[in-house]
Each structure stands twice: as structure tokens, then as C-alpha cells.
Amino acid sequence: MYALLSVSDKEGIVEFAHNLVALGYKILSTGGTLKLLKDSHIESIDIGTYTQSEEMFDGRVKTLHPKIHGGILYRRDHPQDAQIAQEKGINAIDIVCVNLYPFKATIEKTDDFDCIIENIDIGGPAMIRSAAKNHHNVLVVTDKNDYQPIIEILKNHQNTLEFRQKLMIKAFEHTAQYDAIIANYMNKRFNEGFGQKAFIVGDKVLQTRYGENPHQKGALYTFGDFWQKHFIIKKGEPSFNNLTDIHSAIKIASSFGQDAKAVCIVKHNNPCGFAIKDTLLQSYQSALQCDSVSAYGGVVALNGVVDENLAQVINQIFIEVLVAGDITPKALEVFASKKRMKIFTQNSPYLLSVQDTYDFKHIQGGFTFQENDTISEQEIKNATLVSKKNATQTQLKDLHIAYIIAALSKSNCVAYVKEGALVGMGMGMTSRVDASRAAIAKAKDMGLDLQGCVLASEAFFPFRDSVDLAHQIGVSAIIQPGGSIRDDEVIKACDEYGIAMYFTHTRHFLH
């Protein structure tokens, strides 16, 4: 029995090989893997010696040989295949253990194209695909986490077709992901990221009980290892909708720097509360005042560590999901009696958010694909004053908060902020003035004083009507992208009312 071992990531390979030898396998190997095995006193056969064909072209050709691929691919239960194998001196290779040249790691650390090209594996994918194709006879291994379970399977004579099918699927996933990363990289380098094909590849993190609704299936996939490293389940099971709400809440709460005591409350993907105060407790209390009705059963993201005192305050109402940088053991105990509550952390003193390069959205029959939207600090700091009146430093801070919230909320939207807290939010409306009316109405329902607040819009005001409404409730300053054919009318209205207005010149539609 032969097992072929040729891996770039050599973690665990020595122990795996040792156990295979103990089970009676002869080891075929190449290059660095061969050297490591020999240095570890594991008897191994050089593939070049085995095939009587030396490596060529600096190792570009070493496993592309009939004795290798014939040994992997020939069908053991086909008499003609078996006869040809015997005539050609081709031995059966029953295990193929391969992981590939580190292409992804290479492009993350260098822009040297020659180096990048040399880290495109050829022989490895060919062997994996051969072994996966012939999984009726061959066990293909591409994941080092499978080494120990495979040894146990072999020891207990449980190497079933069903087991080999599972490894076959993993193998094809492995090579498909590898090729997708290469294709996406080449399109990014030579086609500005938009080639004739686009590949979206993710690793499964967890299966949700269902999707948006009980009749739909759903799961969470990750592009890298962010969710595996920074999603710690402390209590409960995340649902599909929880995950999308967590995404929205973290994106806003983590947008103001590591030290900002930011708290964001989200319901159905929309912010219904936000604040930055001196402490997380003060921030939570202020955020809750924006819309305590919608906050019930919502998702709360806190940019910091939840302590016992804060936990006791949060525990006064039903919050379905709490996500934070971390939580103390005593704080976790506070929520023990809340059976439906879910708590997740990131094993960090503050919230972490990953900025993906691209964004996509499903439409019937396909998907739209674009560069991910980002909100530059410079577009806020360098916003152009277009009114006669300047904003105060306090107002500028509130404008900063309001603008980010608006930019990260569903269009059309407006955000009203006062003293570091969201006091009114209208989002996802078909007109901007309707968004303004909705925000004002909600603020009045909650008994909030809007006098002196600031206003942000993620896109320009098409008419002055939103400014007229803003004046009626006491808005002191406005920030918006500008760009309307009626900008002059909008600016004139601000000057009439003594409202400061700034243009960022960058629109942030979120549909």
C-alpha cells in the first residue's frame, strides 16, 4: 500500500506519516516534505526515484508522471485498468495527502509577480483532483485537521465510501477555492478587479437553524478567518437575522476608533439608538432613549467590555442579542436567567470590524458586484462650509457622528444627533423629506428635545423642504454631500435660518 504525502503546510505531517507507516503504508514524498520525513527518521521514497524521472525546471515538473497519476486514477475493479497497471509497473496509490503552495499568503506579503507566479501550484491540484475523481478507491486528504480522524478510521477498518465521499467534496472545494483566489487576484492586478468572471468563495463557519424565515435554510460563511477568530459564542445560538443585525450594529459602533465608548442598537438592520459618552453605561442609557420601544428584542453592540454594573442595567429590558469586545464572568452571570438572550464577544477590549475590498448583492439571475463603500475621515474633516454660519466644535463632533450613522443606514435616510447621541432616525424611505418627518415624529413620541441638534443626510437634499423642517425643530447644523441642482436654494434656506451647512461631496447610498 502506498500513501503519497506532499504538503506545503507541514504541521502534523510527521505524526500522520508515522501512523501510516505503522499501518503498513509505504510513503512516497517530494521536496521539503521528503526531507522533513527523513530527518524525522520516517522511511520515505523519493518520487523521482520511484518514477525514475528526475525533477525538472526548478521543481515545476516532478509529480506529473504516469506512475503517479496512473497509480491514483486506475480503477481497481476494472480488469482492463488493472491489467494495464500491471503491464506498466504502476502500483496503486491509496492515499493522497496534499495541500497547496501558499498563494494567498504570498500575495498578502509581496507584490513581486515572479514570486507570485512560482507560488501557483500545478502538480498539487492535479494530484488532488485525480484522487478526488477516483474516490471510490483513493482516500484524498487536504486538511491537516483530518489527519488524526483518518488514522482512527483506518485503524478501525472504517474507510467507507461515504467517508471518502466527504473527503472528496472537501478536496474539490479546496482546489476550487485555490483557483478562485488566483483568478480574482489576476483580475484585480490586470483588470481593476472586474474581469469576465467573478468568484465569491467562503469557508463555512456555522449553520443557522434557518434563514430569514423558517422555510429557508441558511449558514454563515467567511472570506478569511475573521469570524472563526473573533466570534465567541458566550450564550445562545445565532440566527441568520441575528448575524445580519450584528453586522450592521458592529459596523456603526466600531467606526469611531478603539477608545470611543460607542453603543449602537439595531432592529431589523436599522439603527434605532446610538451614543458616544464618557462610559459605556452612559452611552447605552443615552442610546436607549432614542427609541426604547424598537430596542426591545433588538441587537446591542458595545465598543468595549461589558462589566457587571452595565449588565444589570441592560438586563432591565429584553435585548435579544448583545455583542461586545468582551464580557466579564460576573456580567455574564447577570444574564443567566434570560433564556432567549444571546451573547457574543470578539475576545478583544473593543469591537473589531473587517473592511472587505468588494461588496455584492443578489439580484434575480445573478449578482451586482462593486468596490466596498468606505467613509473617509478626510471627507468629514475637509467638508466644505457652504453657509454663512460656522458650526461650533461640539456641533462638528455631532455632525461627524450623524454623518457616519447616515452613511451606514438604508437610503433615503437622515440622522439627528445631539450631545453625542442619536435623537432621531429616519431610514429606508422613498423620499428624504418623509425620512425627516418619520425621524421627527419618533423623537416627539419618545419625548426627546431636538432643539440644537444636528442633522446628517447620506445624499443631497433635492429641495429645501428638509431644511424647512429642520428649522422648525431647532436643528443647528447640517452635513450632506451636496450636488443637487437646487443646492443654492438649500444653502439659502440655511442662511435664512442661521443653520450651518457643510458639503462632503461624497454620496453614500445604501440600498
Describe this structure in words.
The model has no long low-confidence stretch (mean pLDDT 95). This protein has three domains: 2-190, Rossmann fold (3-Layer(aba) Sandwich); 229-345, 3-Layer(aba) Sandwich (Cytidine Deaminase, domain 2); 377-503, Cytidine Deaminase, domain 2, CATH 3.40.140. The protein is 40% helix and 21% strand. The longest helix has 30 residues, at 161-190. It starts with a strand and ends in an 8-residue tail after the last strand. Helix 8 packs antiparallel against helix 10 and helix 13 (280-290) packs parallel to helix 15 (308-314). It is elongated. It is α/β, with parallel strands linked by helices. It is built from 21 helices and 21 strands. The strands form five sheets. It has a six-stranded mixed sheet with strand order 8-13-12-11-9-10.
